[in-house]
Predict the 3D structure of the following.
Amino acid sequence: MEILTWIICLVLSYFIGSIPNGLIFGKMFWKVDLREHGSGNIGATNAWRVLGKKAGILIFILDFLKGVIPVLIAMNFIGTAWSMVIIGVMAIAGHVFSIFTAFQGGKAVATGLGVVTVMMPEIALIVFLVWLAIVFATRYVSLGSIVSSILVPILTVYFEYPLPFFDFGVFTATLIVMRHRPNIKRLLNGTENKI
């Protein structure tokens, strides 16, 4: 029964993570395919740039919930630190490599924050405020996302969270930095888009 619970949670987490909110709502309400505009990404930042503030906030919240819901399921039905980490990673994997968009997806920031919010709420609040401060000061969403993601594993050590949460922080930070490689090049060249 425990194995079946794990299988259901893993599959459900991946499919929840895979829901391409930016693509669905962009087409449904704005008649726009985000893949054909701006950066071509279906995440909240491109939605904000292409469709406006309301669309960006909506997509951010929906992608955030893709991280929250699976981890809450894992917490209630399995209940271990490793289960929350593994299920959270599956949700992020679904977001980044969505089965509904030929395994193309977002950059893991909003969904990753959703996972962190359930597992480590105070860290989520800190990194979100850091992200806001950087974006407000520089207008670079990518810079805020990169710095905030790197802070997560550091803060897990500071707050003395268990090893699985530190491992999650390292994995997610690495993934987010890798997904932002083009942005890093543009930041270094001074050609990155501002919000």
Summary: The two ends are 48 Å apart (CA to CA). The chain is about 75% helix and 0% strand. Residues 53-77 form the longest helix (25 residues).
